[in-house]
From TrEMBL:
<keyword id="KW-0597">Phosphoprotein</keyword>
<dbReference type="InterPro" id="IPR001789">
    <property type="entry name" value="Sig_transdc_resp-reg_receiver"/>
</dbReference>
<feature type="modified residue" description="4-aspartylphosphate">
    <location>
        <position position="54"/>
    </location>
</feature>
<dbReference type="Pfam" id="PF00072">
    <property type="entry name" value="Response_reg"/>
</dbReference>
<dbReference type="Pfam" id="PF13426">
    <property type="entry name" value="PAS_9"/>
</dbReference>
<dbReference type="InterPro" id="IPR011006">
    <property type="entry name" value="CheY-like_superfamily"/>
</dbReference>
<dbReference type="InterPro" id="IPR000014">
    <property type="entry name" value="PAS"/>
</dbReference>
<dbReference type="InterPro" id="IPR035965">
    <property type="entry name" value="PAS-like_dom_sf"/>
</dbReference>
<feature type="domain" description="Response regulatory">
    <location>
        <begin position="4"/>
        <end position="119"/>
    </location>
</feature>
<dbReference type="GO" id="GO:0000160">
    <property type="term" value="P:phosphorelay signal transduction system"/>
</dbReference>
<protein>
    <submittedName>
        <fullName>Response regulator</fullName>
    </submittedName>
</protein>
<feature type="domain" description="PAS">
    <location>
        <begin position="130"/>
        <end position="181"/>
    </location>
</feature>
<dbReference type="InterPro" id="IPR050595">
    <property type="entry name" value="Bact_response_regulator"/>
</dbReference>
């Protein structure tokens, strides 16, 4: 076992008790912190496998903020410890990248199971987590790149951007983009809104802004242009804006090779297969996910001297006229395709988006999404619904039969009550037992009715969501 754990707890006795418990379970405690700032320092120094973080900490930042910063900076999973299980605190905690929480006092078995589940879950996530790949890509990109969420809080800053702005990753992380760099918020936020809207409406992935100034850490004012990209997130990964900072006088014009360089930054942040074609229909950029898809399709990407429609199977990705139309019409389109992989039918959504330089369509981005799992879930849900409808019909028929028994049962009880012989008393007892059974069936029917109403509401909500989509 010997997983390395950092304890963050401002009560010394409690911290000591947790340490002893962890060591008895075979874990290695690498350190103990009492404040959020100290926790961040020890996390950076020891890089533990997991952190046990008390939510209520004294100092500048509490446990929730410290955990969020640590996970974003160092990718270390956190389990929250709290004496308070109030809803507002837990909601705030669980909005961060929390892997779980324990309400004090907790027992040894609870602690052990939570730690093991968290470490296992984090290892699984690391195998599919694109964030590390994005950070690696940005490290080697020569352009200065800063990323934020919709809240304008800085999430990433690469070495080139550190050099341009004078701010290090540790200093810039978690700061407001506009407050730190003093960039014109009105102009840039309008472009952010436009590019995110364009992404939803399938018109563009980038937006260009000229004549901006940026304040460096030294106080020097720098004239820059800026390329703003937007990547839509998913259930695990939030939306992210990419800002390419281009100092005046650098090679930041809107030539096609420049565009391709900036699009590469955005595409490497997308965890689904994407490739970019130019006006000659050649594949000029593709990401790792697309390369992996091509391997499964048996497509060789080592020979890209031919147009995309000759390199890729047209039955899946489209023919020459599909590619030509995107440049002529300038309109996005989406098609569903199927193919067999190892005898399994797979469903793909092929979405083609025209990309412009502000004047004409220069490139087209093709985004591929695997819909197989969604189709399986739809088929499973339909099967469940069919079975539920069949069972519902049977239950309703049983309820109807039980209803038919009530009137003759009432007549039999009335007849049996007219005599006081031993046989009549036994009949009355039997009729009473039958009446009790029918009552239990009625109670089960009421429970079934509640369940059916619940499913009806869920189906109605699902249909409304599908219609709105």
């Amino acid at each position: 076992m010997n997983s390395r754990i950092l304890i963050v707890e401002d009560e010394g006795i409690v911290s000591l008790d947790i340490r002893e418990t962890l060591e008895n379970l075979g874990y290695r405690v690498v350190g103990e912190a009492r404040t959020g700032i100290e926790a961040m320092d020890l996390a950076k120094e020891f890089m533990p496998d997991l952190i046990l973080m008390d939510i209520k900490l004294h100092g500048e930042i509490d446990g929730i903020e410290a955990a969020d910063r640590i996970y974003s900076l160092y990718d270390i999973p956190v389990i929250y410890l709290t004496s308070h299980s109030d809803e507002s605190t837990l909601k705030r905690a669980l909005k961060t990248n929390a892997f779980g929480y324990l309400v004090k006092p907790f027992n040894e078995r609870e602690l052990y199971s939570n730690i093991e589940m968290t470490i296992h879950k984090h290892r699984i996530m690391k195998k599919v987590e694109p964030a590390e790949e994005i950070d690696t890509t940005l490290t080697f990109v020569s352009d200065a790149v800063v990323t934020t969420g919709h809240d304008h809080i800085i999430k990433r800053i690469n070495p080139a951007a550190e050099s341009v702005t004078g701010w290090t990753r540790e200093e810039a992380f978690g700061m407001d983009f506009f407050e730190l760099f003093e960039v014109d918020k009105n102009v840039v936020s309008d472009m952010m809104e436009a590019v995110s809207r364009d992404a939803f409406e399938k018109r563009s992935l980038l937006s260009w802004v000229d004549n901006l100034t940026l304040k460096k850490k030294s106080g020097e004012i720098l004239d820059i242009s800026m390329n703003i990209g937007y990547v839509r997130g998913n259930r695990r990964i939030p939306d992210e804006f990419f800002f390419v900072l281009i100092p005046k006088g650098s090679d930041g014009d809107m030539k096609e090779n420049s565009l391709e360089r900036y699009y590469r930054i955005i595409m490497d942040a997308i965890d689904v297969p994407v490739y970019l074609i130019d006006s000659e229909m050649d594949i000029v950029i593709y990401n790792q996910a697309f390369s992996d898809l091509c391997v499964s399709l048996g497509v060789n990407l080592n020979h890209l001297d031919k147009p995309a429609y000759e390199v890729l199977p047209s039955a899946i990705f489209g023919n020459k006229w599909d590619y030509t139309d995107i440049f002529k019409s300038g309109s996005a389109f989406e098609k569903e395709r199927t193919y067999k992989e190892g005898g399994i039918l797979r469903y793909l959504s092929i979405e083609t988006i025209p990309l412009t330089d502000g004047r004409k369509v220069t490139h087209a981005a093709v985004i591929v999404r695997d819909l197989t799992r969604e189709k399986e879930i739809e088929d499973r849900d339909e099967m469940v619904a069919m079975n539920f409808r069949a069972h519902s019909k049977n239950v309703e028929e049983i309820a109807d039969l039980c209803g038919l028994l009530k009137e003759p049962l009432s007549r039999a009880r009335k007849t049996a009550s007219s005599g006081d012989t031993y046989e009549m008393r036994k009949i009355r007892e039997s009729l009473s037992e039958i009446s009790d059974v029918l009552y239990e069936i009625d109670m089960k029917w009421l429970k079934y009715e509640k369940m059916r109403n619940f499913f009806d509401i869920q189906n109605s909500l699902s249909e409304d969501k599908d219609n709105s989509d």
